[in-house]
Design brief:
3 copies of one chain form a homotrimer. Chain A has 346 residues and is α/β, with parallel strands linked by helices. The first copy, chain A, is 16% helix and 29% strand. Chains A, B, C: Homotrimer.
Chain lengths: 346, 346, 346
Amino acid sequence: MQFTAQQISLLLNGTVEGDALVAVDKLAKIEEGTPGSLSFLANPKYEQHLYTTGASIVIINKDYVLNGPVSATLIRVDNAYSAFSVLLEQYNTIKLNKTGIEQPSFIHPTAKVGSNVFIGAFAYVGPNATIGDNSKIYPNTYIADNVTIGNNVTLFSGVKVYFDCVLGDNVIIHSGAVIGSDGFGFAPNPDGSYNKISQIGNVVIEENVEIGANSTVDRATMGSTIIRKGVKIDNLVQIAHNVEVGQNTVIAGQAGISGSTKIGEQAVIGGQVGIAGHLTISKGSQFSAQTGVNSSTREEGKQWGGSPYLPLKDYLRAHVNIRRLPELEKRVAELEKMIAELHNNK
Amino acid sequence: MQFTAQQISLLLNGTVEGDALVAVDKLAKIEEGTPGSLSFLANPKYEQHLYTTGASIVIINKDYVLNGPVSATLIRVDNAYSAFSVLLEQYNTIKLNKTGIEQPSFIHPTAKVGSNVFIGAFAYVGPNATIGDNSKIYPNTYIADNVTIGNNVTLFSGVKVYFDCVLGDNVIIHSGAVIGSDGFGFAPNPDGSYNKISQIGNVVIEENVEIGANSTVDRATMGSTIIRKGVKIDNLVQIAHNVEVGQNTVIAGQAGISGSTKIGEQAVIGGQVGIAGHLTISKGSQFSAQTGVNSSTREEGKQWGGSPYLPLKDYLRAHVNIRRLPELEKRVAELEKMIAELHNNK
Amino acid sequence: MQFTAQQISLLLNGTVEGDALVAVDKLAKIEEGTPGSLSFLANPKYEQHLYTTGASIVIINKDYVLNGPVSATLIRVDNAYSAFSVLLEQYNTIKLNKTGIEQPSFIHPTAKVGSNVFIGAFAYVGPNATIGDNSKIYPNTYIADNVTIGNNVTLFSGVKVYFDCVLGDNVIIHSGAVIGSDGFGFAPNPDGSYNKISQIGNVVIEENVEIGANSTVDRATMGSTIIRKGVKIDNLVQIAHNVEVGQNTVIAGQAGISGSTKIGEQAVIGGQVGIAGHLTISKGSQFSAQTGVNSSTREEGKQWGGSPYLPLKDYLRAHVNIRRLPELEKRVAELEKMIAELHNNK
């Protein structure tokens, strides 16, 4: 699809400088702009690119003063960054606007499917599953028996949702993520083997949650593993059985939360962080990447690092000390020599 | 399905106190019990909930003495915990009791499929593959050429098993796990590029193994990557080519075992642990979470921690020392000052 | 398929010693050889097995001098190891030589599919997607709209490629890997919730790249996440949005690269390594397993370890010092006692 500078300007409530009829069909960074593309300038750091960009249209702030000739058509708006964000979102909405039911797909006769949905080929919707309005179930996705899925939900290709799980409105789950697999629970036998403990709970994901590609969220042994509303989870993250992740918490790639741990709201968990089981993590706690958390936190909003974890400042200081350890050992050896001399001279 | 207190009591060889005809259709924790649900009381810590629970039926020990009025119907048994475990298992068995072959699925004419199996829609069973009796192959699962699968095996939705791999009886594999992908083997060329080394071995998984969601087990370069019987592997675990994992070993989430390493039996490997290649790990070794193992272990049944790893006790002690490092540096500086003074005063 | 010693010898330009008509149908390590299998002897460490192996045929070097009777037929060649590698590759090529389009599969009428391809059952090829000649798309694989796939590409079962991504010639991607999922980008709101930042870029994978099972490569916010030619990526690796991985770099299992980081060519990144965002890693940098990289590197070809990372030698030395910390504390305490004595005796 092509849009002219005039059309875009109308949409953004802006004013056009230059050729109002020039047309674009893609978005680009200003330093990578080519003819037919639309860019924006918000960060003064990138200002020099305005005069050399190959983009056909650039969105800039109303009050921006030019320092030279510009070949692109300009659209002036109140806030170039937020105007461009609006376009990004519109672009994506148009791009991902699929509806209809592709064939072959499998929709059990007892499943309830809302209006205006997309169900891709080779998608599976099991007995008594419910899918809300405007939801998109991409190809090769599996929705097991009795799963409930809200409105405006997107499950990208290859997501697997085990039986009885519940997903709220506006949830987005990326390819390969697994929701509701069995918790890791086994009881040891005298002969060293293990008996599986049946995992009969489920997973509840509240509204506005996003979960990244190939992440896993295990079902509860009994009750629910709960992801509260607004939580954002990156790729390859492990959430074990009976965990509860508090509202608006953010979890970066490859982090893992062990069984029955409760994470407070607004926490920030860095990449590859590991949090042990049966802990309580207080609201707003922040863990830097690779932190190992082996006990509950008490204070809110504190920063942590290291494995086992320490207050971030203490950890960083200790790490500087560690680098100086060879030097410290030498200083101690020198002291020992001097003391020995003093003794002998006594 | 609904069951009355009387029916359940008969099954558990118990005795009913209260309304024998009250019916339940789900299981719940005693503190979360609602009308229509069945709970149990085993841990005295939860005793107070017995008197307030909304559950319709509670299973308790024969010899438990009531301290007040209870509204739920009680079923008294020898051991409330193990009686409840029996019910959990029965519940799950009924819940997951699927059989039959859904359409469309792909079963190659040369594949051999046992009796009483479930093969879900969009599942693929390749040429010369064998599936034993009572096995369940969930939708969107891929079983390549010449794969052998035993009896009572469960492959949840989206499991991928590459050609020539062998799975024993009672194996359970969760969604998205990949069995038999190529080992990571490349030979460097003088120009900096790499040549792939063909990986022509397979993976052998013995009986009673469980493997978690999105875990990966690579095929051997030649010979077999072997998971011995009774091994339990959590989610997002990486097992590299030619690894052997000993009987009844347990591996927690996001741990990784590098190529050709042999893990002894009854080991316990914590979350996010990394074990380097070509090592031998002795029987019963225990690694705490995030441990980094860069050499073989000799002693059996020992606990380890840290990266690179140390005996767990040494590691924990060293970590306390690390926290005190800034203090230690100050003490050394103080000593240096005092020694200088002593020198000057001499 | 069966091959005689004579046929194999012809292929390898070798000479046969023993029964030229003995036939084999599989490859085996010399110590695991059984009748009907073909082995090789290159490493003198395994020499003893030549005299006891059950293999029917063994490939050995031309100049190898026997020290006893051998029951296997021998094929003598210039270089036993490279001769065997040739066979390995041929074996695998024959083994994986699938072509044709299985049914049911989904190929959009606007998709362009080259000649001599394999498209497995339940594979999905979206609108305007292009698949080059001789490529293999295994069952249950998903190729979204506008994806471009080169020649001789192999996508194993269950790979997911999001819209607009580009894969060069000879790329191999293993089961469950996800290419082009959304980058992890969110803008905070005053109420603590987050707004999704649309991710409209793509992923470009150049020729001769291999990506392991269940790894994830996120699409760029704008522009491209780029994997340069010859890069080899193991299982369960996370590559975040706008990352660029330089030519011939090798990344081991469970490593993670955060957003916008540029990795130089010929780097070697160990298992479970984490690299923070917006960094530049110089050419040939080597990171040992579990390293945590929190700043850019300047020097080329250097080895690093630890978290936060240090030059590998410094890290290993510091680690030795850490083990001696309890001892060092004792030495300091001893010094303090002696100094106090000296003071008192003054």
